[in-house]
Amino acid sequence: MDYIIKLAFVLLIFVYAWLFQTQNQEWDTERALLKDANNLAVHDASRALDPGELAEGRITIDRAAALEIFKSGLEANLGLDRTLAPLPGSPLNAAVRIVEFKVLDESSGAEFPMLYEDDQYGITKYLLGPSVIAVIETRHPELIARLNSQEPIRVPAIQEYKPDQ
Fold first, then answer.
1. Mapped to the 3 state alphabet, what secondary structure does the chain carry?
2. What does pLDDT average to in each consecutive run of 10 residues of the chain (165 residues)?
3. What local confidence, expressed as pLDDT, does residue 110 receive?
4. pTM of the model
5. What is the rounded distance in angstroms from the CA atom of residue 63 to the CA atom of residue 69?
6. Is the dihedral of CA 126, 60, 132, 104 positive or negative?
7. pLDDT at 25
8. Quick one: how far is CA 22 from the chain centroid?
């Protein structure tokens, strides 16, 4: 009987460790998907130039168009609907939330080159030109119930406008 209790305890520890490892792999996979999708979406958004300003010789990004292009990029790359909730077949299990979306260009008063710092999201980057900055997040996958909730998966991305790329 003593042997059975010890074996059950060891089995329980093994199953808990296995589930914990699986949860961490899910976190890594979702974070990589979010990072790639965020990078692609901010790149596309940084190309939304205001043609009127461009004709005047200023490179400014159309904020409304950039945000719409950014959302469309996330939807296409992550399999999301218009509310950024996962569609059937999406690799994500929870909705994506845009925590921060910022356009830095001449119209926002930014002077380049500049050092951009955001302590809230841990972003520090030297910017040479107009840029789009976005932070997105989704719920942490949970295979093991815990007393305290996990921090969401939060991913920042910055893209500078570069005319030749």
1. CHHHHHHHHHHHHHHHHHHHHHHHHHHHHHHHHHHHHHHHHHHHHHCCECHHHHHCCCCCECHHHHHHHHHHHHHHHHCECCCCCECCCCCCCCCEEEEEEEEECHHHCCCCCEEEEECCCCEEEEECCCEEEEEEEECCCCCCCCCCCCCCEEEEEEEECCCCC
2. 87 87 85 95 93 86 95 95 94 93 89 90 92 94 68 93 69
3. 84
4. 0.85
5. 10
6. positive
7. 86
8. 21
Residue 108 pLDDT = 84
CA angle, 86 as apex, 85 and 91 as ends, to 5°?
Answer: 145
CB 80 within 8 A of CB 37: no
What φ, ψ does residue 61 adopt, rounded to 5°? -100, 130
List of residues 6+ apart from 14 with CB closer than 8 A: none
Q: What is the pLDDT of residue 164?
A: 65
Query: What pLDDT shows up at residue 33?
Result: 93
- Encode 24-57: b = buried (16+ Cβ within 10 Å), e = exposed: eebeeebeebbeebbbbbbbbbbebbbeebeeee
